[in-house]
Automatic annotation (TrEMBL), chains A, B:
Organism: Phenylobacterium kunshanense
Gene Ontology MF term list: DNA-binding transcription factor activity; transcription cis-regulatory region binding
DNA-binding region(s) from the entry: 38-57
SUPFAM superfamilies cross-referenced by the UniProt entry: Homeodomain-like (SSF46689), Tetracyclin repressor-like, C-terminal domain (SSF48498)
Residue span(s) of domain HTH tetR-type: 15-75
Classification via InterPro entries: Homeodomain-like_sf (IPR009057), HTH-type_TetR-like_transc_reg (IPR050109), HTH_TetR (IPR001647), MT1864/Rv1816-like_C (IPR025996), Tet_transcr_reg_TetR-rel_C_sf (IPR036271)
Taxonomic lineage: Bacteria, Pseudomonadati, Pseudomonadota, Alphaproteobacteria, Caulobacterales
This protein's UniProt keywords: DNA-binding, Transcription, Transcription regulation
Keyword Membrane: no
UniProt protein name: TetR family transcriptional regulator
Highest taxon in the source lineage: Bacteria
Length: 209, 209
DNA sequence: CAAGACATCTGTACGGCGCTTAGATATGAA
DNA sequence: TTCATATCTAAGCGCCGTACAGATGTCTTG
């Protein structure tokens, strides 16, 4: 009874269904794509009845929110890693590249993430220790580290917005067939992405060196 | 029999149902939003049975394609008008503003347009007289008019892509709540959009004056 | 003008969907 | 042990996209 079956907190009589449902959703998302992600299919994949998820999520959107949330965490981590690996003025473009690469490597997940954002009309803001720890905030912080004046709050915010919008746009369109030839000429997708970012003049420090 | 009932080409016995369906879809899109746009609802709005649309469209996606197509035409026209109204170096940012404003004023339509593009993994290319007459092409042409070297084909294309991606990203995110305060500080949405575009350094001619 | 070919539309049906409700079952606290 | 409560199942509602058979109107051809 009191013995822990697997890791921690197995609150009730079926295991941790909430966790299992999110995992099942991510599995389906990868294997079948976003259009196959029905609540019933997720329940099926998790081996429970179609009504079971409603004890853990108010509705389908709330389940997708949970999936999206994990996506944002993954994106944040990917950007964090890329920033650490880059040097000085390259940190900012490294963030952009990491952002777009994440979206391109996880297209279905990225779509769920932004569908949720569009519905809520807001990017997710993740607070840790009372501080905004979102990926968006990370871009702004990096701009300051690279020389943007934090006292010029409006300019700083506008530059961050411009950068984020460009990243999102590129993330959604990098796979479009129109660009196939250009990608081939430039030697693949990653060089293509870097080249596009180099044509964005929003990073003064980028243009300088 | 040979008398024209309304304008031209009334091919058959119910009128021009294809036209009526697209109109009904656009009406529903405006009044109820994209989530209410079911094939059955469109048929209902047009006053026909749920199966009738299948004689004019292969499936729901094809109907939405037709709606999206009209959206792209409207966007193209809005951009064309804006370009004509602007002077010299301002033509490019005028295009960007017009693009984002169109998306913001027709959010549901814009969503249908890009959902279709994402599914096809391609922007629509509209040919007239054998020439690419798409809105995307219009941006590239404008860059050339403003001094970009058409011989540097790769650079020109990259700059166009960067500009388009930034426009799309901003179009999707301009309504996010995170930006409400900033928009208020800047005196509304349009000044906000202009400010973001000014922070995109992709337009050398923009930065110059 | 008659007759058949054809395009167009309706009626009906199928399976899947999101979600609700009622009832079964297991868990944890008194 | 009892009982409230959390969790899950079974069944069902109305909606969806789509298919198909048949009715109805239009056009062509003789």
């Amino acid at each position: 009874m009191s013995e822990a079956k697997s890791v921690e907190s197995r609150p009730y009589h079926h295991g941790d269904l909430r966790r299992a449902l999110v995992d099942a959703a991510r599995r389906l998302l990868e294997s079948e794509g976003p259009s196959a992600l029905s609540l019933r299919a997720v329940a099926r994949e998790a081996g429970v009845s179609p009504a079971a998820p409603y004890h853990h999520f108010k509705d389908k959107a709330e389940l997708l929110d949970a999936v999206a949330h994990e996506g944002w965490e993954m994106l944040h981590q990917a950007m964090d890693t890329a920033k650490s690996a880059a040097e000085g003025a390259h940190k900012l473009s490294a963030l952009g590249i990491a952002y777009v690469c994440f979206a391109r490597e996880n297209p279905a997940l990225y779509r769920v993430m932004y569908d949720a954002a569009r519905d809520k009309e807001a990017l997710p803001i993740e607070m840790h220790d009372g501080k905004d720890d979102s990926a968006y905030c990370m871009v702004r912080d990096t701009m300051v580290e690279l020389g943007s004046d934090p006292a010029q709050a409006v300019d700083l915010e506008l530059a961050t917005i411009a950068a984020w919008c460009a990243g999102h746009g590129l993330a959604e369109m990098a796979g479009f067939k129109q660009f196939d030839q250009l990608k081939a000429e430039l030697g693949g997708e990653k060089p293509f992405l870097e080249a596009v970012f180099n044509h964005l003049g929003l990073f003064p420090s980028l243009n300088r060196d």
